[in-house]
Each structure stands twice: as C-alpha cells, then as structure tokens.
Fold:
Amino acid sequence: MSSWRRGKQTITTLRAAELNTAECEDRQTQEHGGQTDRYFPVMAESADMEQLLTSFRKFAIHGDTKATGKELNGKNWAKLCKDCKIIDGKNVTATDVDIVFSKVKQKTSRVITYEEFRRALDELGPKRFKGQSKEEALESIFRLVEGKEPSNAGVTKVAKTAAVDRLTDASRYTGSHKERFDQSGKGKGREGREELVENTGYVGAYKNAGTYDNKTKVEK
Structure:
C-alpha cells in the first residue's frame, strides 16, 4: 500500500473516532439535561460497563422476588456500598451514602434508576478516592462494583450437628409422627395428617388389598 493510501486511511479512522466520541457526548448531553459528562466515553474503554450494569441488577433484585432489576431501593443501595467496600468508614460513611441517594433520586421516588446510580457513584468517587482526578476516581469506584453481587453475611444457615440430624431424621420418628412420612423421609401431605376413608371394602390397614383376584387366577 502506498504512503498516500496509508495516510488517507489513518485520517479516515481518526475522523470516525471523532464522530463516535461526538455522538456519545451528544447522547449524554440529552440524558443529563444539557450537561455533558466528558469522562463517560473514556470510561467506556477502561471499565467494563456491562459488568457494572449486571452488578446493579443483582443488587436491585436482592431480597425482592417481584423486583425487575431496573430500580434500586435505598436499602439495597446501602448494601451495595457496604459489600463493594465503597463505605470505608473514613472517607465514605453510611451517612454519606444515604445523602447521595437522596440527592440523585427523584423527589417523590424511593428508588434510583441505573443512570441515577451512575451519578451517585460520580458523587462518591472523588470522596472515596481522594488525590485522584475525577476520571480516575470514577474508574476506581466502578472497579469496586464491577462483577460484584450481594453477600449472604448475616443470613441464618442450617446447623449441621448430630443433634439436628437426629431430630430431622424421619426414620427415627415414632407414633403418629412416623405415619406422616414415607420410607424415603418425604412427607405424605394430607394423607399423613388425616385418616382418609377408602371405599374399597377392606378394613383399615389391611396390607393384602387388591390381591384376591390374582389369587383366584392362580388357583384356576
């Protein structure tokens, strides 16, 4: 390829990059009410925004089976900041996190959207990472959140001890309790709780029910 062609190709590539950057800035200007966040195009290259969104969704649905993953409530926002080490007890406290949440959310809303979530991180970044530029601080706080999910700290777990095993072993049950479980230890449901009447003609607890026809066939 001639030097002229290479030079033309380079100019075309640079021009395309400029146009992509301009499109990003125009889109962000519309999303943020006329204010351009020029560091977001840089962040799209240096941070995995898809992982950030995934983490947002995981915390958004935590503890709520009806949640859509599109909005994050105050409780889960605080949990995210704690689990992801945004709260360090020195530069950023739980109070700081609550203040920022109230600042970025809509006045009558109790949740924040993903865009408001990113603005909240924008507020906390320079406070959490003092001494870094705004772009560097935002990148650092994004990295704290990327790929993270809610921890189960404080959740009660089933104790695995001999006493618990003995109390939950259905094969050791006696009396009426024994009748509520089958041989595999699975509950029988209503059949195990109530005495159901079967109009078979046999007396209760008769074990050879239904064998008469087979017996007469053998004799013939």
Remarks:
- Strands lie at 72-73, 111-112.
- The chain is about 55% helix and 0% strand.
- The first strand starts at residue 72 and ends at 73.
